[in-house]
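The following record pairs a protein chain with its ligand, alpha-D-glucopyranose.
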Amino acid sequence: MPANLCQQRPVADISDTASKVVTLLSKMTIEEKVGQMSQLPGDGGNVSNRLRKTIENGHVGSILNEVNLDTINELQQIAIQDSRLGIPLLIGRDVIHGFSTIFPIPLGQAATWSPDTVEQCANLAAIEASENGINWTFAPMIDISRDPRWGRIAESLGEDPFLCKSLATSMVRGFQGDELSMPNSIAACAKHFAGYGASEGGRDYNTTNIPEHELRNVYLPPFKAAVESGVATFMASFSDLNGVPATANNWLLTDVLRNEWCFTGPVVSDWEAVPQLVTHGISVDRCDAALQACTAGIDIEMASDCYFNHLIQLINDKFISISEVDRIVSRILTLKFNLGLFSNAFTPSTQKANVLNKTHLKVAKEAAIKSCVLLKNNEQILPISKGKINTLSVIGPLANDGYEQMGTWAFDGKASQSQTCLQAIKDYAGNAININYAVAMENSRSNHQQGFGQAIESAKNADIALMILGEEAILSGEAHCRANIDLPGAQEQLIEAIHKTGTPIVLVIMAGRPITLEKVIAKVDAILFAWHPGTMGGPAITDLLFGLVSPSGKLPVTFPRTVGQVPLYYAQKNSGRPPSQETFVDMDSIEVRAPQTSLGMTGTYLDTHFTPLFPFGYGLSYSQFSYTDIKLNKEVIAIGNAIEISVTVSNIGRYNADEVVQLYTRDLVASVTRPVRELKGYQRISLAPGKSQVVMFELHTDELAFHNRKMECKAEAGLFHVWIGGDSSATLTAEFRVIN
Ligand code: GLC
């Protein structure tokens, strides 16, 4: 087991803040201390007498989901002027992918493979939120997600630890800035710790069973990266991790988070997750739940009152030591000092100058452009050239819906401010192209076909049918899981009907998860996957469709052919009988009464090909890129050193375009089985047609480390393969050896 790396800070190091915390703590009653550990929902813009009294009595330390600025200032005033010690409040909100200006959903932001873009989105979100009195966001959500049935994959940064680590760091930096006390910085919150994305069956809040080495090699690295990036807070997951819910999991919240990683910030429970320990069957009653959660490492109880109703008695009865409570409350007070709340907790109501301003909208559009992934482009039907078509038929329930394009967790977004595809296309086309619009379906789940007739007529009279389909925002996000991840409702039938007109189809999909497209892919000529692109989704998609900019997004998550393949991800283990094209046997080709061992005898299906429809890292461009001259500066490296790996990337197409160059490695033989490929580097580059660039990666053996049978995190000597290319199926390869 890793040693306890957190050496106690020598007294001489105690900072000014620490001495203020000690002084304040010494004045607090037990009730006031427990009050700091309680978080209550706001009253929707009001200040009820009950809430006022609770704050006056020092019985609450943070409020969540209050977004009325005047009300927030009033709550702060009560806390500072009317309570005995004047301790200001933390004001928390789920600012997940924007506040008023909504950026692409996090899964879409992950598809940009652009840490700078992700940081910018978080930074602008923090500016808008802080101008609204918010000082704490419950983001980034950094659960590794490999099950597209799970609704919360929409909030995640995808399936890969390396990509998730890098973007999590960017988000934390964007939210928190250089100093938490800066006016537009807000405290970030790494959530949901940990393993929530492995919820069985893709059903939210469900059991997770994750062997420790899998937990440490796949699910924990983004959280450790968040600690290293200085994230201010953590949130424990709802889920039961290997039999112990995260909310009561000492190993997770104390042994790993505190003793191994030396995290010093507060840990908040998820919504009513403390009393849910009774529902889990791990606590006999709410008092026991309070004891278990507090002992395990939950510092703040969100939205329920087990702490306030039971901790004082548990302390008096010596079940919980006052020194432990002092450590907890010190973390909370330290955060408030670091946020500058004791100097100024009020937000001027005039400020809001930045909300939805031009810069924010420009960044939102750029982020949406970089997030869209071109999955198919037959005969280069895209980009649509203004001069080449007279009539464009725009069809579908998501073509002109400013609310749905914002996606899940967009509470404070303004649908009225969204710019839809239909609007943007009309603005761009002007009089040059006739635009015919047919909504065809009331919403993405409609099952009747009354609107198909108009859509068919519209398509028949057009040069191209642009279908904008997908999922409404409500079909992904928390508790919104789907067992079937096809296009909902009668959308597949709509595609079939438009396909029959013979008019070429360009399909744009807005969704919060990978969608299974095998049944429609042959009927459309191009597919642009836009996730839920946010406020500026329309202008972004329009610029892409008409070639003002080339698509450059890459999939942060594998797209299966059918939901029956799930979980399906690129970094899988080889097994002893890996599937291969040679051994794949299609069910329909099997002879009747074929002998038992006559088939492939490998890990594949009889009724579906074993490969994904689109692999992790995949995304087309309007241009084409070649990868040549992979070079290593050495063939053998000793552990503790680095190797330089370079490749020449050339734009051999006709468009200026970005490309995300990806580097993957494989540890061929190790003390535990290792994935067949792992992302170990990526760079987004821009190339003009005919230009080339040598892209260099430095790969340190630390990046090759993994948790072995003894749970030691170490790289091991042996042979490694390396691939560089435009997605996880890259073929340009080389090898190197690591020695001790
Ligand atoms: C929800 C979510 C969590 C969110 C919290 C506050 O249940 O699980 O991600 O931050 O409650 O809204």
